[in-house]
Each structure stands twice: as structure tokens, then as C-alpha cells.
Design brief:
The complex is a heterodimer of chains A (118) and B (370). Chain A has 118 residues and is mostly helical. Chain A contains 4 helices and 3 strands. Helix content of chain A is 69%, strand content 12%. The longest helix of chain A has 29 residues. Helices cover 62% and strands 3% of the residues of chain B. Chain B contains 17 helices and 2 strands. Chain B has a two-stranded antiparallel sheet. Classes of the chains: A mainly alpha (118), B mainly alpha (370). Chains A and B meet through α2 and α3 of A and α2 and α4 of B.
Chain lengths: 118, 370
């Protein structure tokens, strides 16, 4: 791959990731609640393309909480490691449903367009 | 100097991040701390070591960058670069807050503003002088700090130590301290009501002693609330109100003056009551320091109360802006240890001393010599 192609891929990947990461986090947390570190590791495990680091995940969790798509609760069972658990709210689930639908439509249409090109 | 205690290394690193974070970032700080502990445990295969902590910290990266990822990079304000807006704002708040607390305290204990000889344009000159001197200091230290760029990630640079001024003052109350407030409030409230103590009071103090006792019990309730709920708007409001109550009560206490006329002295195998003024007169001590001591105590407590009102009001407004309600399970701060705990000093630290530089893979310089 040429340097120019790599640069274009990097730029495009960044743009795709920006849109996908909210959907990925909402989808993950809709199945079960998780605390920050857990969410970072789960996303890292399941979404290698996104290559999410804590510097992206934590601020996003806070923004989604502020937008009332997520709700958080502190767990002090281990006083050395208090855990802030995030779960999806009703609004979050509705947003997730709409996003999932849009993502499916986009994927299908993109696949069709790409197939035509190929 | 960097410690080899894993938790202390994390604390030191978190303190560096905190310098660049806005005041209302306690949640982010605790999340970061938990993240580092878990990551260090994962790296260490379930055990956290100094080496695994250093690796986790290096993976997290430069404290300034981490803080800006969490809090957003903010905007440049005048000549101040965006990354230094938070620490400088905090320092400015601290300077103004401390000056205000001192001014109120000084004025309330009856200090005349003209008594501050040689200071013109009081009270505005004090914060201004502090700010000017601090600015000069920062410029000098900024130059010096270029020399300590090679310090490990856990160690604060000199500049960060300066920018960190006031961080402690805004940390939430630790659970230990909250418990201490509860126990000491009950203890002193009860102690001040004991007949053997009451008989030492001056007639003037006796007339207001009950209010002091009620105030101490209110302090105990505040301690209990912080112990249970950590820092939230309800508890901060209680803290602010109690501090305001103290300032009102202090007005009477200043008028009342030194509260006891006698003290207990153990002499010839029994407790005797000795009159304080009588003692000073008998031994021809010309200076009676009691009113000075009382004035100083009142000055300090009023200044602390004003500072608490300032901090509580600021934190409440920040929490309200963040859309939080009245009560939630808030965080507790960590109790700062300025020295090793008493039991460690008595029995000695059982852990062998670990000298030498720690590298990112957990390797130490000292291992080379063995």
C-alpha cells in the first residue's frame, strides 16, 4: 500500500470510527452494564477495527451520560477500586434502535454500491 | 522522589493529571485510578507491582494529554494556552478565596483595616500582591522546569507543583475525616456539657455554651452525612449552612471572649482548680495572653468557615450545571498521609527497600548490581 493510500485509509477510518463508536458502546452496554475499564477491554476485544483506547471511551461515556443515553451508578464494594457502572437508559435504547436500523440500511446500501464497483 | 509502592505511584500520577483537570472532575479521577489499578493487575497477572503500575501508567500516557482527553482541550483565554486555563483558574480562585477568608476573619475579630501598617489600598492590595508575586514565581519556575523533563511519569514537575496549588483544598472530604467529624463532634459536644467542665466557664461563655454544643452536634451530623453519602449537593449545602452558622455564632463568641476562668491542675495527688488570671498575677506575669489566643482561634475558624462556604457554593453550582440533583452517592477523597503511619514507624516497614530506577518493563537499575 502506498503512503498516500495509507493516509487516505487512516483519514477515512477515523471518520468511520467517529460515527461507529457511539453505536458500539450503546450496543455493548444494552446487553449488560459495565464499568469504564470493563467497557474499554470489551470494546478492545470485540472491535479491533475501532482500536478504542481509554482516552476515547471514558470521555464518550461521560458525554453519553450527559445526553441521558446512559445512566451511571457507583459501586464501592471494593473501596480501593470504586467502579462507575454504566447502563443504557430508555432514551438510549430508543436511540440504539434507530441507529441500528440506520446502520443496517447503510451497510446494505454500501454493500450494493461496492458490489457494483467490484 | 518516586516511591516503589504501587498505590503511591498511581496516586502520584493521578495527582499530576488532576493538576490539569477542572475542579469538578472527581469522578474522572476515581475512574482513572480504578483503570490504572485494574490494568496494572492485568499486566502483573493478577498482582499489582511497581513494574506493572509503571507499565500501565506509560500506556495511559502524559498526564496533561490524559486530562485534556477527559475534560476536552478547552479554549485559550487571553495569553493563557488552553492546557493551562484549568490550573490557572483554580489558582486564581484559591488566591481570591484565601484573601476573602482572611479579610472576613480579620474584620470579624475586630481588626481595623488601618492596623495593617504599610499596606496601601487594603484589602485589594493583598490578592494583587499575591498574584503578581506568584506570576513572577511561575515565570522563574517555568524556566527551571525545563530541566526536569526527564522525571518519571509519576513525579510532578516543579511547574506542576506550582499549578497544583489549591488542588488539596477542593478534594472531597475523605471517609476517614467524615467519620472523625462525627466522632469528635459527639465527643466534644458531650465533653462541653460535663458539669466538671461547665464549672470552668466564665459567666459570659456560660450564656452561649449551649449554642456551641448544638453547633458541635450539627458538625457531627454533617460528618455522618458525608460518611454515608460522600460529596453531593445536599451535604455540600449542609456544610455551607453550618459554616455560615459558625460565622454568626462567632460574632457572639468574639464578644464573650476567653471562655474559661480556671483550669484543672493535678497537684499533690489530687485535681485542683486553678484560676488562670490569679495564676498569672501570683507569678507576676505581666502579659495575659488569653484574649489574644481566643482572637487567633476565632480568626482561624472564621477564615476556615468562609473558605468552606466558598468551596461548597462553587461545587454546588458546578454540580447543578452538570445536571445533578440534590442527593446521590458521591465520592470520598483520599486521606493524605504526610508521613508513614504510626504502626509502620513503630514496627518498621516489613517490605525490603527497593532502590533504583524502574523501567517500563518492571526492570530495576538495582537488579543489575546483584
Amino acid at each position: 500500500m502506498s503512503k498516500k493510500t495509507q493516509e487516505e485509509l487512516d483519514r477515512w477510518s477515523k471518520e468511520v470510527k467517529r460515527g461507529a463508536v457511539t453505536l458500539a458502546i450503546l450496543a455493548l452496554l444494552s446487553r449488560r452494564r459495565a464499568y469504564g475499564y470493563e467497557a474499554v477491554k470489551l470494546l478492545d476485544e470485540k472491535m479491533s477495527f475501532l482500536a478504542l483506547e481509554q482516552g476515547t471511551v471514558y470521555p464518550l461515556l461521560r458525554r453519553l451520560e450527559k445526553r441521558e443515553l446512559l445512566v451511571s451508578e457507583w459501586d464501592y464494594d471494593d473501596p480501593q477500586k470504586p467502579k462507575k457502572y454504566y447502563a443504557v437508559t430508555k432514551e438510549g435504547l430508543m436511540a440504539l434502535g434507530a441507529m441500528t436500523q440506520a446502520w443496517s440500511d447503510l451497510s446494505r446500501e454500501m454493500r450494493d454500491v461496492i458490489m457494483e464497483v467490484e | 522522589m518516586s516511591s516503589n509502592d504501587p498505590l503511591e505511584l498511581i496516586d502520584q500520577y493521578i495527582d499530576r493529571v488532576r493538576v490539569y483537570l477542572p475542579l469538578d472532575s472527581e469522578d474522572a479521577v476515581v475512574e482513572l485510578q480504578t483503570h490504572l489499578i485494574e490494568e496494572a493487575e492485568r499486566i502483573g497477572g493478577g498482582t499489582m507491582t511497581a513494574g506493572s503500575v509503571m507499565m500501565a501508567i506509560e500506556r495511559m500516557g502524559d498526564p496533561k494529554r490524559v486530562a485534556h482527553e477527559y475534560a476536552g482541550s478547552g479554549e485559550k483565554v487571553g495569553p493563557v494556552p488552553a492546557e493551562y486555563v484549568n490550573p490557572l483558574s483554580r489558582m486564581l480562585i484559591v488566591i481570591v478565596g484565601v484573601a476573602l477568608a482572611l479579610i472576613v476573619g480579620f474584620t470579624m475579630v475586630g481588626g481595623s483595616l488601618s492596623q495593617l501598617a504599610g499596606i496601601e489600598n487594603w484589602p485589594f492590595s493583598i490578592p494583587l500582591m499575591l498574584a503578581i508575586n506568584l506570576t513572577i514565581f511561575i515565570v522563574i519556575i517555568g524556566g527551571i522546569s525545563l530541566l526536569d523533563r526527564s522525571k518519571p511519569l509519576t513525579e510532578k514537575t516543579i511547574l506542576e507543583s506550582i499549578f497544583g496549588i489549591g488542588v488539596e483544598g477542593f478534594k472531597p472530604k475523605s471517609r476517614f475525616d467524615a467519620g472523625g467529624d462525627l466522632i469528635m463532634g459527639i465527643f466534644w459536644g458531650y465533653f462541653l456539657m460535663l458539669p466538671v467542665v461547665v464549672q470552668l466557664y466564665t459567666a459570659e461563655f456560660l450564656s452561649v455554651a449551649l449554642y456551641v454544643v448544638v453547633f458541635l452536634f450539627l458538625g457531627a451530623i454533617r460528618g455522618a452525612l458525608f460518611y454515608i453519602g460522600g460529596e453531593n449537593n445536599f451535604n455540600l449545602a449542609v456544610e455551607g449552612i453550618i459554616s455560615a452558622v459558625w460565622i454568626v455564632l462567632a460574632v457572639s463568641l468574639i464578644q464573650v471572649g476567653w471562655p474559661i476562668h480556671s483550669v484543672y491542675v493535678f497537684n499533690l495527688g489530687e485535681w485542683q482548680i486553678v484560676n488562670l488570671v490569679g495564676f498569672f498575677t501570683e507569678y507576676s506575669i505581666p502579659f495575659l495572653p488569653f484574649e489574644w489566643i481566643w482572637t487567633f482561634i476565632m480568626f482561624v475558624t472564621i477564615a476556615i468557615a468562609v473558605w468552606r462556604i466558598i468551596v461548597s457554593s462553587m461545587k454546588i453550582s458546578m454540580h447543578v450545571r452538570a445536571g445533578r440533583g440534590v442527593w446521590w452517592q458521591g465520592n470520598w477523597g483520599k486521606r493524605r498521609r504526610l508521613r508513614a503511619p504510626f504502626w509502620k514507624r513503630v514496627i518498621g516497614d516489613q517490605k525490603p527497600a527497593q532502590d533504583g530506577t524502574i523501567y517500563h518493563d518492571g526492570y530495576r537499575d538495582s537488579q543489575e548490581s546483584t
